[in-house]
Amino acid sequence: MEYLALYRKYRPKELDEVVGQSEIKKILASSIQNGTITHAYLFSGPRGTGKTTMAKILAKMVNCESPVNGNACNKCQSCLNILNSNDVIEIDAASNNGVDEIRDLREKANLVPTNSKYKVYIIDEVHMLTTQAFNALLKTLEEPPKHVIFVLATTEYYRIPLTITSRCQKFQFNKISNNDIVERLKKISVLEKIDIDDDALMEIAKISDGGMRDSINFLDQLRSFNGGKITLNDVYDVCGNVSSQEIVTLFVNIYNNNAEEIVDFFEKMDLNGKNYGKFFEDVISFMKDVVLIKREVNSKYIKSSIDDVKKIANLFTLDNVFNIIDFINNLMGRLSSVSRQSVIVIANFLLMMDRINSSYQAENLNDDIKKIHDNENEKFIKFTSSKKENSANLTDNHNLKDDKVVVDSNDLIPKISVKNKEIIINNTFAVASKIIKNNLQSKFSMISDYLTDKKFTSIVGTLIDTTIEVAGDNYLILSAKSDLIVDKIYSNYRLCNEFFKMLFDNEYNFVVINNDEWNKYRDEYIKNIRSGKKYELKELNDNNLIQELVSDSEPTIVDKLFDLVGEDNVEFK
Ligand SMILES: [Zn+2]
After folding, report:
1. Over the chain, what is the mean pLDDT?
2. Residue 304's domain spans which residues?
3. 562: enclosing H helix or E strand
4. Distance, CA 56 to ligand 1 centroid (Å)?
5. DSSP letters for 24-79
6. Which contiguous run of DSSP H or E holds residue 92?
7. What is the per-residue pLDDT for 258?
């Protein structure tokens, strides 16, 4: 008998079998029940999360002769035959992306279905279509034949023109949770008589990163690799991974100056034929988690075991960790061009160990944290000290202690002038574009990758707690959970600008406001749009939006404060 891949064998045949995506399942079932199906659906989400599977199930549901609560009965002639009939057409836009293919599709779509109520076109990876092909598709979507339903599937929603997305009912597929993946794999393992440990299943789920298809394919691979019971180590062996416990052991040995153990570790790795590239990637991603812990970033961003990460965070300073990441990055770049990789790796790790230990002062974690805070406050300290100078100019022999009475230190955090803030918000609404927003959001969702970037780490750690609300050409509104975050971002406005320029490939005038304030602006916007008000672009007062508060020695600190933050915002205490 021909071998059937597990993924195909266990592909869900009805809604209830689909793992996760419960909202989508509910909406689709009720639309069948209520007879409110539309002619174009857009399924977007990460790979392997069930988009095509759901599209096929939908094709059954809309054609089923006797649906049960909106679900396909899986018994009628239509349910049994439709997926093999000519009425469900699956097109891979990655290889059929031209205008001719779509024109051809349009012509065929006009022909009535052979045996079914609806012809269902499933276009996979639809973002791969050329502009002309999208235009051709758009004509069909504008006036679809009554008997045709399109299901467009994509992993890159933001690459689809607004003209297309606006004509579709949109569904966002989420990554599947590790627990859901484990549950599903367990069921398959029982049915297939695969003997596998629970922690091996969990590791597969983690590696698959929310993709059901990848996880089942991985199980399939492990089954053929291993005749007997599958353990966690088998998982590591097959994917070339080293466990995070092994990474901990390695770095504890580096901390303790155990050269022999380090040599031993890499020789074993070499013997087992493990891949250095994959290993170093794992170490870097582990060290990224160490940085996150040290910076007290929300633990939801941490992918490795928190206990393991804490062990290493307690041993090394943040500087050490950055150096380790830099060091491994460089080593990775050099490795591909050498023949005896293990020798180079061992020599370099011993060198790194020496450097870390010679520079390392036994400081406890609290000292490290204090250091980080000092760095972050550097700018603030600069402000206060120059403020002291200015005030000293104002009144000779002024007691420095009294300076603190002049203005509360919080007011020394630069703020955007009220006028400029209103203009930026107005202009962002004037140029607001959903496509640009989606595009920026998708880039913004990757910013945790920059937490290990020395230059941007402090600002990224703050930006992680903000949300892009509106965006358009050169304008951007962010919301933040608290004023503390707002202040931190304004203190680093230029660095933020620089970061955005690098991340978004474009310059943005932006404001960041707290959630309450954002809700007010949003409501006002909605009200204005409803009443027909148009937002016109206004000119910004000053290109230099945020000025150093006390960068020159003019003795007019209070005037400057009024000028910069508006009189209302300066409080004397
Ligand atoms: Zn049926």
Report:
1. 80
2. 244-359
3. helix 557-565
4. 13
5. HHHHHHHHHHHT---SEEEEE-STTSSHHHHHHHHHHHHH-SS-BTTB--S-SHHH
6. strand 88-92
7. 87
Q: What single-letter DSSP state applies at residue 432?
A: B
pLDDT at 413: 52
Classify residue 38: in a domain, yes or no: yes
Kindly give the distance from the C-alpha atom of residue 61 to the centroid of ligand 1, in angstroms, as a whole number. 7
> How far, in Å, is the centroid of ligand 1 from the Cα of 378?
68
Output the CA 118–ligand 1 centroid distance in Å.
13
Residue 300 pLDDT greater than 90, yes or no: no
CB 248 within 8 A of CB 223: no
CA atoms within 13 A on the CB side of 353: 20
CA of 151 from ligand 1 middle (Å) equals 20
- 299 in a structural domain: yes
User: What is the total count of domains within the chain?
Assistant: 4
CA of 71 to the centre of ligand 1 (A): 8
Q: Does 194 map to a domain? A: yes
- Mean pLDDT on 410-425: 70
18 and 155 inside one domain: yes
CA of 82 to the centre of ligand 1 (A): 10
Domain boundary among 308, 342, 359: 359
How remote is the CA of residue 66 from the centroid of ligand 1, in Å?
A: 5
Gap from CA of 479 to ligand 1 centroid (Å): 48
State whether 210 and 328 are in the same domain.
no
From CA 432, how far away is CA 533, in angstroms rounded?
Answer: 14
**3-state DSSP helix/strand/coil percent for the chain, to nearest 5?**
60, 10, 30
* 32 Cα: distance to centroid of ligand 1 (angstroms): 12
Q: Where are the beta strands (DSSP E) in 256-397?
A: none
pTM over 0.70: no
